[in-house]
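Let us work through a complete example step by step.
Step 1: write down the sequence.
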Amino acid sequence: MRLIVKDLTQTFDTTRVLDKLSIETGMVNSLVLVGPSGGGKSTLLRILAGLDIPTSGTVEFDETVLQRDEASLRLYRRTVGTVFQSYNLFPHLSARENLILPLVSVHGLSRDEAIARVEEPLRRFQLHEHADKRPAELSGGQNQRIAILRAMVVRPKRLFLDEPTSALDPEMTAEVLDMIESLKDSGTDFVLVTHAMNFARR
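Step 2: predict the structure and record it as tokens.
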């Protein structure tokens, strides 16, 4: 992917979170956003993912400018995956059903097609034995890996991750980072906000 951000500004009430930010990358497989808390990293990620509309400025991925109208943003959001530190899994659904739901309700797959698509990644990342458990029955690391899988099974053009390990202990953090590295090695483009500097350097 190639990203160009020009004069991006985001203001909430009287607080200016981003102030004429400009970024230009070459062709990259991954982009890591690092910096102090409160520096606007998550705000930038949400704009790049099409979840928030900036006050001013432009975002361009692969020579296509991200439009601001809701219809265009809705189409764009269907082409990307997003993962946040709070998982955002449905608590009343099993891990497997959390993966199946967006495939059926948003992307139009039949239930049988969706079931077939989620089985391989559940096995690949050693989550198949936990697939029938609800989020409350899973560890933080397992929930976060399910959240990442939910974003990946829709086969997005790129994946946006907002501090996916910030609420996890060291062992669970290692599980999630290993998974992200595996996805990176498989050719998935992603943008990652993280405080894990050793991982960011890789």
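Step 3: interpret the result. The radius of gyration is 17 Å.
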